[in-house]
Design brief:
This protein is of the alpha/beta class. The protein folds into two domains: about 120 residues, Rossmann fold; about 90 residues, Winged helix-like DNA-binding domain superfamily/Winged helix DNA-binding domain (Arc Repressor Mutant, subunit A). It is built from eight helices and eleven strands. Strands 2-1-3-4-5 form a five-stranded parallel sheet, sandwiched between helices. Strands 6-7-8-9 form a four-stranded antiparallel sheet, covered by helices on one side. Strands 10-11 form a two-stranded antiparallel sheet.
Length: about 220
């Protein structure tokens, strides 16, 4: 899942990003509304965690722009105000969910994952295919009943492949969904991660390489 965190309190923004990365999400971070508009014009995000009171461009205007562009991106709006009127106003301008500060990180993560499931064809919370069972909320993976321990990027790649439901996923798509924008696109990080993932999942191999196209399960 690709997430953009937009928050002008840099310590909070960085802490949220670090936590979401530990949950196997690809996360980019910006600290003002103008930078947020620049990022959403370049990258496709599943979820934007958007502080409402931003410098340069207000969070409301960022949210309106996402709606105006017709993007499938979901918006989780954050605010220091817990007033019902503020929550209603935020939802009316196009936010998909609303979370007042201070918040429990576990709740933020659960809300981000719930919104991420709504950006495409609805899928069950637990993904299953070819004997593999992946639970994004519990961060658990099983193959034929045997638990598999995966690193965050391995988990993220496997989740993207399972969500494709048998369709081929290119290396570029995996890079976009499982890594943030600081990753060098010319590295072999995708190939190495897929190789390690195959080894951990064991035989018979379930990740198929489609020459010139990508990977599928």
């Amino acid at each position: 899942m690709r997430v953009l965190v937009v928050e002008d309190e840099q310590l909070l923004a960085d802490a949220v990003a670090t936590g979401l990365r530990r949950e196997a999400m690809a996360v980019d971070v910006v600290y003002d509304g103008a930078a947020a508009l620049e990022r959403i014009g370049v990258n496709d995000y599943d979820v934007v965690v958007l502080d409402r009171d931003l410098p340069l461009v207000h969070g409301d205007d960022v949210c309106r722009k996402i709606v105006e562009l017709g993007m499938p991106t979901r918006v989780l709006m954050l605010t220091a105000s817990g007033d019902v009127s503020d929550r209603v106003e935020g939802l009316e301008i196009g936010a998909d969910d609303y979370l007042p500060k201070p918040f429990a990180f576990s709740e933020l993560t659960a809300r981000v994952r719930a919104l991420g499931r709504r950006t495409s064809v609805p899928l069950p919370p637990v993904l299953e295919r070819a004997g593999i069972k992946l639970d994004p909320n519990r961060r658990e993976v099983f193959r034929d009943g045997r638990e598999i321990q995966l690193a965050p990027k391995e988990f993220a790649v496997l989740e993207v492949l399972l969500r494709s439901e048998g369709a081929v996923v290119s290396a570029e798509q995996l890079l976009e969904k499982a890594w943030d924008e600081n990753t060098d696109p010319f590295t072999n990080v995708v190939r190495v991660t897929v190789m390690t993932l195959r080894r951990k999942l064991g035989e018979p191999a379930v990740i198929v390489t489609v020459p010139g196209s990508g990977y599928r399960i």
